[in-house]
Amino acid sequence: xxxxxxxxxxxxxxxxxxxxxxxxxxxxxxxxxxxxxxxxxxxxxxxxxxxxxxxxxxxxxxxxxxxxxxxxxxxxxxxxxxxxxxxxxxxxxxxxxxxxxxxxxxxxxxxxxxxxxxxxxxxxxxxxxxxxxxxxxxxxxxxxxxxxxxxxxxxxxxxxxxxxxxxxxxxxxxxxxxxx
Length: 180
What we know:
Elements: E1 2-3, E2 6-7, E3 9-17, H1 22-43, E4 48-57, E5 63-72, H2 87-98, H3 108-127, H4 129-142, H5 150-156, H6 159-170, E6 173-179
Antiparallel strand pairs: 1-2, 3-5, 3-6, 4-5
């Protein structure tokens, strides 16, 4: 929500140094889908919503980072008995997920569903010539291939790979701040 000219809420970033391979990046994207589900559950009773985005960073070192932006919902849009949480309550709820990433349940059915969604997202992404060209430029200028054989790479994402990604992220660095 907005108070005066300020947006109240919570922002969290978590990052881990992970050598770039397409399989690692796709496992990270599936891990982000599972984290999103956990955040939605953790925030449901606090009258808040969260957006999570996952990014591959190549410079100055190879790493993956996810960003959580969480804001209270307008009270008029919440179910009876639920009111918007304070920034401190929202931070506690977000921490209940980000500080136990290695404990997130990773099942074959959850990974299968996230792979299907990821494949559709990538197909939509590569349907746009601009984004395909961006990834091809990265391939030829940086030697990081996000394009070739991506459909087979999505199918290779496994429970073990997603668990490993969540474990590496749980050991990574985190920055968090609140706006009150």
